[in-house]
Amino acid sequence: MCYMTVLSTDSAEDLGSSSTPLVRFSREMPGVRDERHLAYAHRWYVASRHGCSCGLRHLAAASVTLGFGEPQDWFPEDAVDVEATRQVITLIRRLVDGGAAVDCVDAWAEPSQATTDLPGTVRVRLDTVDDRAFRFFENHRFVFE
After folding, report:
1. Per-residue pLDDT reduced to its tens digit, 111-124
2. How far, in Å, CA of 145 to CA of 141, rounded?
């Protein structure tokens, strides 16, 4: 099983042109059931250097109450994963600052297999979350403001 992070926006911008060696934005969606929760027409699969979304920062569903937070010494994270996640949130921030609507879903699933229902929507006020503190929450939908 892998993390699958999918994003949608009302912006027609080609996010594929923002791909880097650490993060690839692809129109080819992975086929997770939770893609149905995306609200906007332009949909993107956010893949890390691993080919899935596992190379991004995530909190397991049981740990979501920890919220956003910068990497901590007591819980080592790969610096490359921290940088990859920073690149994703920087792109999302740029889209929202430019007037685009953006949401995403982070699912722990095999492609084409069902996952649990999403427990709800997390509204992310980008003016209150630092790029290094951002992380995805397993089986949650995010709406960026």
Report:
1. 555 555 777 789 99
2. 13
The CA distance from 27 to 1, in Å, is 21
- Give the pLDDT confidence of 10-35 residue by residue, as tens digits: 999 999 999 999 999 999 998 888 89
How far apart (Å, rounded) are the C-alpha atoms in residues 44 and 42? 7
Residue 81's φ and ψ, nearest 5 degrees, are: -65, -40
Return the amino acid letter for 46.
Answer: V
Domain ranges of the chain: 2-144
Could you list the beta-strand ranges (E) of the chain: 2-9, 23-26, 42-48, 58-59, 102-109, 121-124, 136-137, 140-144
pTM equals 0.90
Contact 46, 5 (CB under 8 A): yes
